[in-house]
Amino acid sequence: MDSSSQTFDPNPPEDRTLPDRLPVMVLTDCHLFPGCLLPLYIFEERYRLMLTHVLSTNRMFCVGSRESTEEGSPVQPYTTAGLVRACVKQSDGTSQLLLLGLRRIRLTGWVQEKPFKVATIEPVATLPEDLDRARELKRQVLELFANACIEEAKQLRAALEGTHDPELVCDVLSYHFTRCPKLQQKLLAEVSLIKRYEMLLAALQKKKCN
Questions:
Q1: Among 19, 129, 181, 203, which residue's beta carbon has the most beta carbons within 10 A?
Q2: DSSP calls for 89-158
Q3: Gap between the Cα atoms of 190 and 194, Å rounded
Q4: What is the pTM (predicted TM-score) of this model?
């Protein structure tokens, strides 16, 4: 399996109906985007319990990103509902898993704190916009990687060029090449695909974010 196939899923599962609440694994500065695969190592007792629950129900949970490293700091409201795509339990009780991003969501409230957090959620829909404009922005973004020196970037660009969904391309590149947590949260919250592409282009061209 090459690196591009490990980092996004070009053939995501059929559209799933999201529940009205999801378990939340709270991490610092960690954002998952739709269509992308996030490797996770489950070792804390609360998340072992969460994983047992998830695997016995709908295999879904999400990653909530804290605003800071402090334990009590707020969790950012926008994230992505995730599906456990693969999971391997180790002899010591820990687990390695791949979480596939399904759909943007907003956390709307907390209904459980222990043994693991559970939040009520609502889906965040992307606005219907000019598809031709979105495809042109897709082309412009991928052109930035035309002369990439890193092999992984070359493989990812080649894979994305054959992807007909401009929203998936934007999300995959946002996941891999925007390392600023504030920008990633803005990209997850933005309902306009055109604006997402414009933010992504600006970040890639400047190689920084505000």
A1: 203
A2: E-TTS-EEEEEEEEEEEEEEEEEE-SSSEEEEEEE-PPPP--HHHHHHHHHHHHHTTTT--SHHHHHHHH
A3: 9
A4: 0.87
Total Cβ atoms within 10 A of residue 34: 25
Comparing CA positions, the residue from 85, 78, 80 lying closest to residue 39 is 85
Structure tokens at 22: 């999801």
The single-letter code of the amino acid at 180 is: C
**Residue with token string 């053939």:** 11
Per-residue pLDDT of the chain (210 residues; tens, 9 = 90+): 233 335 666 555 555 789 999 999 999 889 999 999 999 999 999 999 999 999 999 999 999 998 777 777 889 999 999 999 999 999 999 999 999 999 999 999 999 999 999 999 999 999 988 999 999 999 999 988 877 667 777 788 888 888 889 999 999 999 988 888 999 999 999 999 999 999 999 998 886 444
Of the candidates 33, 71, 39, the residue with the CA atom closest to the CA atom of residue 193: 33
Which H or E element spans position 82? Answer: strand 78-89
Report the 10 Å Cβ neighbour count for 153: 18
Q: Are the CB atoms for 194 and 130 separated by under 8 Å?
A: yes
The H-or-E segment that residue 66 falls in is strand 60-66
> CB neighbours (10 Å) of residue 137?
21
| Strand, helix or coil for residue 188 | helix
